[in-house]
Amino acid sequence: MLIVSLNIRGLGGGTKSRYLKNLISREGAEFVCIQETKLKGFTDARCFALWGDNRVGWIHYEGENGGGSLLSMWHKDMFCYESHVMGKGFIVIFGQHLRSTRKCVIVNIYSACSLREKKILWEEITGIKGGSQELVWCLCGDFNAVRSRRERKGASSRGAMASGQTSEINGFN
């Protein structure tokens, strides 16, 4: 399955909408996970226009005051939606990739910067995953976390990683 994930940092303007539509078309996307739409309301018409097709399913999480908003979209000829779970900073979608007939779970994530909030998000997703381990899982999004010290850009190796940041790395891994 070809999944596109993008932190758009605001989808209100025409330039980003055209960019997203061109990206979906050019890459042949089957499923799209967008973080930070910064929009409150979504409609079928808007999703159809973004995809360039009316055979699109979608779920939108508005976030809090537009912050942390998420949009998950899929082409109905490629992915069969079954159910979803939504919470602060995530949308978990259960379904089936039609070409491979594999049952799968696609998770669209926008994590807060606060370690406390990240830990809550990780625990919620881990809890959901625990009940469906036989499925194929794909986690997409903006995790606002790194898996190792080497991934931290703009930080010197000395003193830059406080114990909280080491705890963040361990929790994220």
Care to describe what's here?
This protein is of the alpha/beta class and 173 residues long. It has one domain: Deoxyribonuclease I, Chain A, CATH 3.60.10. It contains four helices and eight strands. It has a four-stranded mixed sheet, with helices on one face. Strands 5-6-7-8 form a four-stranded mixed sheet, covered by helices on one side. The model has no long low-confidence stretch (mean pLDDT 88).
- H/E element order: EHEHEEEEEHEH
Tell me the fraction of residues in β-strands, as a range: 25-35%
Task: Please bin the fraction of helical residues.
Answer: 25-40%
Total strands: the figure is 8
Please, how many helices? Answer: 4
The low-confidence runs, each spanning 5 or more residues with pLDDT under 50, are none
Assigned CATH architecture: 4-Layer Sandwich
CATH fold-type name = Deoxyribonuclease I, Chain A
Spatial sequence of strands, sheet with the most strands: 1-2-4-3
| Average pLDDT, all residues | 88
Oligomer: single chain
The total number of structural domains is 1
Distance between the termini: 24 Å
What is the rounded Rg? Answer: 17 Å
Q: Would you identify the CATH H-level superfamily?
A: Endonuclease/exonuclease/phosphatase
Largest sheet: 4 strands, mixed
What global shape is seen?
globular
Query: What is the structural class?
Result: alpha/beta
